Amino acid sequence: MAVTETMKRRVPLDDVMEELARAEKLSSRDEALARAIAIVTFRRLGTLGRALSERLNKPPKDERLMHLLATGAAQILFLDVPDHAVVDSAVQLAQNDPKLHHAGGFINAVLRRVAREREQILAESDPWLDTPTWLEERWIAQYGEPLAQTIAEAHRSMASVDLTVKADPESWAERLGGVLLPTGSIRLRERTAIRELPGFEEGEWWVQDAAAALPARLLSPKPGERIADLCAAPGGKTAQIAAAGAEVLAVDRSAKRLQRLEENLARLNLKAETRAIDAEKLEAEPFDAILLDAPCSATGTIRRHPDVAWTKTEEDIRKLAGLQGRLLDKAASLLKPGGRLVYCTCSLEAEEGERQAESFLTRHPEFTRMPVTPDEIGGWGDCITPEGDLRTLPSQMALAEHDRSGLDGFFVARFVHKGS
Ligand SMILES: C[S@@+](CC[C@H](N)C(=O)[O-])C[C@H]1O[C@@H](n2cnc3c(N)ncnc32)[C@H](O)[C@@H]1O
C-alpha cells in the first residue's frame, strides 16, 4: 500500500505511486484515484489517527491495517466517495491479503462508525493536529505562534494550480479563465485536465507555483547572457531563463530527471544545454549569472506533497544544509566578476534559507546582497525580509476565492560578485 511504503522507506509518495502503478498495471484513472486517496490521507494524518484511536479499544499492531483504516476514513471524511463503496473496497483489500484477511469484520465496524460520526470528527479543529510535533515546534520558534498556526492551517488545503506564460499574461489569464496574480503568474480557477487547455500543445505556458516563479525572475536573465541552472530538473526555472533569451546550461545530478527537463523544454520550443553531473564537480567557463535551486527538505511544498511532513526528519535538514552550503561555495567559484547568484529553496526552515544566506556572506566577502525590491515582484512587498531576501509562506497570497489562496513556501536570496 502506497502510504505504508512511503512511511517505511521515507521516500516521496510520487516515487512510490509511480512504482506501484507500474507493478500493478493501474489504469491512469485508478492511479489518479489511488494518488488522491494517499495525498488526503497524508494531509489529514493526525486527524485520522486521532479519530481512529478514539474509536478503537486497542489500536491494531499491524501498521498496514492501521493505514488501511486511515485511507478508508480519509475517503469517508474528505473525498466524494460513497461510504458503502469505501467500506466494501477496504474489506475486499483486506480479504485479498493473507495477513489481513481475518480483519474484514473489524474494518467494516470501524469504518461504519467513522461514517456515522463524521460531523463530530470534522468539528474537532485543532489546527496543529495534522502537523508532526517537531515541525510545529520549529515553526513556532521561527515564525512565532500566530503565523506558524496560519501555516499549519494552510497545509490542510489543496494547493492551487499556477501557470507561467512565455508572454502576454493578461490575455492568457483571460483565455484560460484564470486570475492574474500580482507577481505575473496565472492561477487557474478550475481543476481541469492541463493537457487539454489552450496553449498546452503549442508550449505557450507551463505549470509552476507562483512562488517557484520568483527566483528566476529575480535573476533577471538577459538575451545573450550565459547562465547556469545548477539543480535544474524538471526545468521550470530553466524554461524561464531560456524564454528570456539567455543561453542556459541546465545541470542536474539525476539523468532521469534531466530527461524530463529535456521533454518539457521540447514542448515549450525552448533550448538549453544539459549536463547530468553532480554540480559540486562541474567544471566550466565562468558564467554571467547562476541560479541555485538547491535540494532541500521541501517543507514549503507540504500543501502539494503532504507526505513530506511525515517522511522528513531533522537529520535530513542538517545533512541538506551541509550540501546547500557546499553548492553555494561551488556556485560562487563559477561566476564572472560582477556576476549574479540567486539561491533558493522550497523550505520553511531557516537552516536552508536565512541562515544559509548569512553564512554565505560571511564565507564570501567578495559577494554582497542585492536586496529584492517590491516593484520587481508586482509590488507585493509582504514577503521581503528586512535583509532584502524573499520569504514566502503557504498562508500568503490570500485571494477572495479562499480555496484558491496560498503559494509554496520559498526562500530566495540574491547576491552579486563585487568585482567588476
Ligand atoms: C528543487 S529540485 C529543482 C527544481 C528545478 N529547479 C525546477 O525549477 O524545476 C532540486 C534538484 O536538484 C538535483 N540535485 C540534487 N543534488 C544535486 C547535486 N549535487 N548536483 C546537481 N543536482 C542536484 C535533484 O536531482 C533535483 O532535480
Automatic annotation (TrEMBL):
This is Methyltransferase domain-containing protein. It comes from the Bacteria. The keyword Methyltransferase applies. The keyword DNA damage does not apply. It comes from Microvirga splendida. The active site is at 346 (nucleophile). S-adenosyl-L-methionine binds at residues 231-237, 252, 293. Pfam families: Methyltr_RsmB-F, NusB. GO terms for molecular function: methyltransferase activity. Residues 251-285 form a coiled coil. Keywords: Coiled coil, Methyltransferase, RNA-binding, S-adenosyl-L-methionine, Transferase. Gene3D superfamilies: NusB-like, Vaccinia Virus protein VP39. InterPro entries: MeTrfase_RsmB-F_NOP2_cat, MeTrfase_RsmB-F_NOP2_dom, NusB-like_sf, NusB_RsmB_TIM44, RCMT, RsmB/NOL1/NOP2-like_CS, SAM-dependent_MTases_sf. Belongs to the class I-like SAM-binding methyltransferase superfamily. RsmB/NOP family. Residues 139-418 form the SAM-dependent MTase RsmB/NOP-type domain.
